[in-house]
Predict the 3D structure of the following.
Amino acid sequence: MDGGPRVPEQRRPDSGSEESTALRFSVLGPVRAWRGPVSLPTGSPQQRALLAALLLREGRTATAGELIDALWGDDPPSQALAAVRTYASRLRKSLDAGVLVSESGGYAVRGLPEGALDVAEVHDLANEAEKAKSAGDLCHARDLLGRALALWDGEPLAGLPGPYAEAQRVRLEEWRLQLLESRLDMDLEQGCHAEAVSELTALTAAHPLRERLRELLMLALYRSGRQAEALAVYADTRRLLADELGVDPRPGLRELQNRILQADPGLAEPSAPAAETVTAPVRPHQLPATVPDFTGRVSFVSELSDVLASAEGRVMAVSALAGIGGVGKTTLAVHVAHQARSTFPDGQLYVDLQGAGSRAAEPETVLGAFLRALGTPDSAIPDSLEERSALYRSALDGRRVLVLLDNARDAAQVRPLLPGMEGCAALVTSRVRMVDLAGAHLVDLDVMSPEEALQLFTKIVGAERVAAERESALDVVAACGFLPLAIRIAASRLAARRTWTVSVLAAKLADERRRLDELQAGDLAVKATFELGYGQLEPAQKRAFRLLGLADGPDISLAAAAAVLDLPAEETEDVLESLVDTSLVESAAPGRYRYHDLVRLYARACAERDEWPPSEPAAALSRLLDFYLATVSGVYLIERPGDRLVDHLERTEYPGLVFSDRHTAQDWLYAEAVSLLACVRQAARAGTLRRAVDVLWAAVDLAESGTNSKEYEAVAELLRNTAREAADPHTEARALTLLAFVHHISGSRFDVALQEAEQATELATRADDPLTGCWSSNISGVVALYQNRHEEGAAHFARAIESFRALGDRPGEASALCNLSRIHLATSRTASAVALAQQGTAMYDDMGHDLRGANGRYALGLALTQSGQLSEATECLNQALQVFRDSRQRLWEGMTLFRLAELDLAARRPAQAAVNAEAALTLLRGIGGEWRRGNVLTVLGRGLNGIGQPGRAQVCWREALDLFESLGAPEADEVRGLLTPTAAA
């Protein structure tokens, strides 16, 4: 940013030359004018006031008298008329010819292009938003209102004199608030209640008597699970209105209070609108019978029905459904075709093309059957494919017929069978995506949602049996991977065995090695369905299918898959995309691939049966682990130049990715987090244990960000237990250090963290692993700081500093120095606290550590706040905040906002303190632990109390007290003091 005036966005005219010279004006801020990108002079405040008065009249003429009243009101100067004429003359010279015109003794602004005035742009956007909202498109409506509100650039008509400008300022500000309330209302409609609380807290502080904002705040708090605070907002509002205006809250606010008190279900987060109902299926000519228990697929039914309904007046409507075997392609196509009877009164044709088998149906044979069904005698049916196809199209001419081509092999098999005539349509199902079928509407069919899966299971088994064991029923459909065929088989087995309970079936399906064998009933079998697809693969495809199925995790990236297969990325992508085309593998996102759960089990069974040599599966997983360790080590080093950790990690044989900047590296780490942790979990065994713990250590940002903390902790515990069983003190020490790190940042398990850190220090000494000892000492010091054991903490940090220096690990030394600063701060040695934090931060800066430098600035900001250097502290904390936000470190972003709230209180800015504390509370949801939440609530209460919301402040303090008392934290005493009448006053 250059600090200059903001040029407002505008709608672009059609002509590029017009765009470059078009006039534009803004009044939703300082009154300004531009010709293209060039700012134009608008003169003195009175001259700008005259321009604003003309612009806001939207082309209507203002008389000289009206303009004089607008500029000076009841006390105009003696030369007011001459001044108006002078201002008009000067503006005319700045603007284009014919824009400011004189007529009937007055003036007007005419001939402006569309979107030339920001107010007009807001009107257009608001109208479009209203239309989008009426159409049910809240996302688009919110976006439009957001764009409209962004056109405000501070106070409207800023700095302009006169009664007209003052009146317009009030009007435009009221308009802005109305638009803002509408956007916030849509936020709540779309479930963004937690995020809205912070903004609404600030708005109610700025506009305390605006009841609609209070109502939205109550609703947002209630939907965030903060009922007591929501009711406290009402109590604060009622008191304020009585004190300031002598009135009661309006009926809407009182009604909302009553509904909150009654826990009205209607106040819960809005659910998605109910889908349109579809007509009951009707039996047509050749179609197979639709299943009586057809369930769900509402959006697909609607989408395909719309395409078929559009067949009239079109050459031909073709929809091609692709998906894995057993996903319900045929069932869906038959169901939709049955519903389309009225659209195709001349009949419906059906054929099973047997494309998944070894002998697919020949197109000429199918055409012969179709021609007979259309009334063509055998003697008139020609022999060749081309002649039969031509006769087929002739027979369909003038008819409206639907053709269902089920289980197609590929587009070449389908093309001769397409009707090709106006008013006709074709539905095609295949395991292969028909990307080469020209003009086809492609539909990728996925598994059912959990709700749909449970509905199907219930329809087959019976509502009474499922209701009695709902949790077990959910386990069954989950074990089936929500695949319709698997659910139908499992449900049919249970329905046929009245002595079985649902839990018995769930237990049978819980064993992954037996699951595919259990999923067969009569002539239905999931494994047989998969065998058909696997049998058609080429050898390279089969190998990739088997090996990639070995990797745990929800999906796998192209680069990771290349490591598993030990192939170049280009070859890997080719084979993966070919597997996607067969529907055995899904493309989760560009460059990412995944298996259905049951397909993965089948792939692993194939690997156990077919892979040669037998050592290849283990080698493939070892390459994957190497890939993750090599790549995440590079990510760690980009974030921490000069850090010695990478020198103490296990060596790798397979290379990883290399990144040129930290943002790309972070993008990779967070995109790969779940799959990376799954790989580490899978590698927690002899032979790969040390590499596994090193991957976890190098990926420590995942724990600190809060995004993947739970899974990170679970994997670290698994590694610790496995290392203990294997009598491997090296790995156990590292796993314990990581657990201590996770538990100390959780904010509620300090005793556990201290015990783990001390055990790690002892084991690291025994295993001759000095770096692990440095880390564990540093963590022990932090825990001692949080527990107010300052002398112990100082001793731990002193040991850590000495050890880091001995290893030449300057980032580690800087970390321990900044932490020691916190000890000095807690013991009222403010000057030395500032000096230590400055020393550590300078070391980070020298090494180019952006993220760790932010940690240094966080510590320095605390020391500067306590020393009374508030402006310097604000700068430090804001710099840290930007880096944490940019690095996706939610925990530290939230904690920095909390520290800024403390600083705001010290600077007597309670409204801003409440806003920052509320934002911190939202960010720290689910991370940081109850101790940190209690601290934030305490500061939030102070801010709310300072802006006249004592009821809500008391709710925050009571919740904080409950948290501190449950933890046995000493902060409880401070909060008890705040809850006394004298403290709250």
Summary: The longest strand covers residues 402-408. The chain is about 60% helix and 5% strand.
